[in-house]
Amino acid sequence: MASILNVDQINNAAGTSAVAIDSTGRVDMNASYVFDQWYLNANHTTDGDSDITAWSQVAWVGTGRVSSMSVSSGIFAFPQTGLYKVTFQFSTKSDASDNMIGQIHVTTDNNAFTQISSIDGGDSDTINGTATGSVFINVTDVSNVKIKLRATSMDSASFVLGNSTVTRTNVMFERVAPAQ
Question: I need a surface site. Which of 28, 91, 121, 158 has the fewest CB within 10 A?
């Protein structure tokens, strides 16, 4: 014989809402979601290889968000453990002799960073270019696992495109599953 349990909400022992079920059967596990987007708020013009640091959070993403990323000196920290998809859109204006590269670096010990992705953004032709790349990062410890974004192979006449009112160079974070 089948049993039916009719509920609208399931709480944890402390009374905090853990799972909600609406009238159509849609399940919402609100605390498990992290969707966040940050954009470069001004052109990044540092010659050579450098960390990209002038990030601002896209305001509309925060509506209804339970938790979000934080950034300090260009280093992003995760709000909770989980498997995250990180998507970096790298927009550039390169001069005729430049071939700029955007990179995603990760640390698992809050100290040494390792490059895990390379996104070719420049095209050596004095025009704007945009490239996008995604990686999965398994965040098992929010104190130690962090990322930063870098621009490499930049010369003095090239820059990474940023803007205070329009999203150009940006990074998106999506928590897709529990930590693996």
Answer: 28
Greatest CA separation found in the chain?
74
DSSP letters, 75-98, are: EEE-SS-EEEEEEEEEEEE--TT-
Task: Give the whole-angstrom CA distance, residue 57 versus residue 66.
Answer: 15
Tens-place pLDDT, residues 92-113? 887 766 778 899 999 999 999 9
- Residue 30 backbone phi and psi in degrees, to 5: -50, -45
Q: Would you put residue 120 in left (φ > 0), alpha (ψ -120 to 50) or beta? A: beta
pLDDT at 149 over 50: yes
CA–CA separation, 60 and 47 (whole Å)? 32
The pLDDT-based confidence of 64 (bands split at 50, 70, 90) is very low
